[in-house]
Amino acid sequence: MTHEAINLTLGLGAIGSMMISGLLFVIFGQVTVRKLRKDPATRSLLGIEFLSGWDIVSASSALSRPDWLTWRLERGALRGLFADSQALKAHTTRLDRGLAQACYWGMRFAVAWIVVWLVAIRLF
Prior knowledge:
By secondary structure, the protein is mainly alpha-helical. It has one domain. Helix content is 77%, strand content 0%. The radius of gyration is 17 Å and the shape is elongated. The two termini are 12 Å apart. The model has no long low-confidence stretch (mean pLDDT 89).
């Protein structure tokens, strides 16, 4: 394969992964986070919203992180920045948690794909 073909393949993969993760982001926000925002018991548990939609990222990461990392983050000095994972797990279904994991890991994969693409552009 030529360098242009490699860059094109990586670029299309990066764009495709961004599109898929964006779609999962919107679906998770509309299905799960909307339900959590309407419930007065969970509205304040979504963490701080720096930007519009940040609570969607916070909720998906809280429902997807390993327990040991969640334990460390929620007991640290910056605990107000993160969503309360135990409360969110109590108020969500298995489908919601699966959608949260797909959204969270899809965003992580898209960022990794973009980094690989940018490195490949600089190398070739």
